[in-house]
Amino acid sequence: MCAKFLAKTVSIAFGIALLLAALFFDAGTASSVDQQATLVNTLSPFERLAEPTLPAEPSQADQGAQDFWLYCLPCHGDKGQGLTEEFRTTYPPEEQYCWQSGCHGKRPYENGFTLPEHIPALIGQGSLAKFSDAAQLNSYIRATMPFWKPGSLTEEEFWRVTAFILRENDLWSDTVELGASNAANVKIPHTALTPTPTPQPAEGRNGSGAMGWIILIGALVILFVLIFTLKKSRNTTTI
């Protein structure tokens, strides 16, 4: 009877150990996912659509940030993410689907234009994959943008926007001005950009890990003691 009882107890303890281990590793994974999900932009629409401020000594790309805000942001997003559903929430409800309401649809207002339903990202993983270098990117922007009046910016503005987009994609250091003389040397890799991992608080990560290991080790110790007791009981019964 004692041996059966101990065997049943061991089975229960083993199950508890497995459950604790599963909960520990699952909690660690969930915590990591939750921390990576903290990238949600908490700025208000007013803050997101505000004109960027210039530093005391603005670089070419710094000035390009203002050009981007003025000419590109309304369609390409405040972070260059494209015309996403999330970005459209920064606009008044009546303007979030303007191609359906008529102002930028198939029959736009006088002197208006038809807005594409898909507007690609300019900043982020793989967004510039179809361009080989900065010269090609600049030529494309110059020939096709702004969408409503291509080629209407000055040469300086086109280069500033190009420099800003490259800098935001970590492809341009912005230490010197970008122009026709050096743009072809600024290569755009065709490999996907690796997103920067979200920093995780070391204290919380280490603390939760230590507690999980303590629980797991404790369960294993209990299991070991029960197995040892069972073996000792069997030996005593045999004698």
Characterization of this structure:
By secondary structure, the chain is mainly α. The chain has eight helices and no strands. It has helices spanning 2-36, 45-48, 60-76, 85-88, 98-101, 134-144, 155-168, 202-238. It is elongated.
Secondary structure layout plus pairing:
Blueprint: H1 2-36, H2 45-48, H3 60-76, H4 85-88, H5 98-101, H6 134-144, H7 155-168, H8 202-238
Provide tags for this entry:
239 residues, Cytochrome Bc1 Complex, Chain D, domain 2, 8 helices, elongated, mainly alpha
Specify the overall morphology.
elongated
> CATH superfamily assignment of the domain at 58-83 and 118-185?
Cytochrome c-like domain
- Reading off the top of the CATH hierarchy, the class of the domain at 58-83 and 118-185 is best stated as Mainly Alpha
Order of helices and strands: HHHHHHHH
- End-to-end C-alpha gap: 17 Å
The whole-angstrom Rg is: 30 Å
CATH third-level topology of the domain at 58-83 and 118-185 = Cytochrome Bc1 Complex, Chain D, domain 2
Helix/strand-derived category reads: mainly alpha
Tally of helical runs: 8
Number of strands: 0
Helical fraction equals 40-55%
The pLDDT mean sits at: 78
Strand content: under 5%
Q: Identify low-pLDDT runs.
A: 17-40, 192-199, 201-206
CATH architecture of the domain at 58-83 and 118-185: Orthogonal Bundle
Major beta sheet summary: none
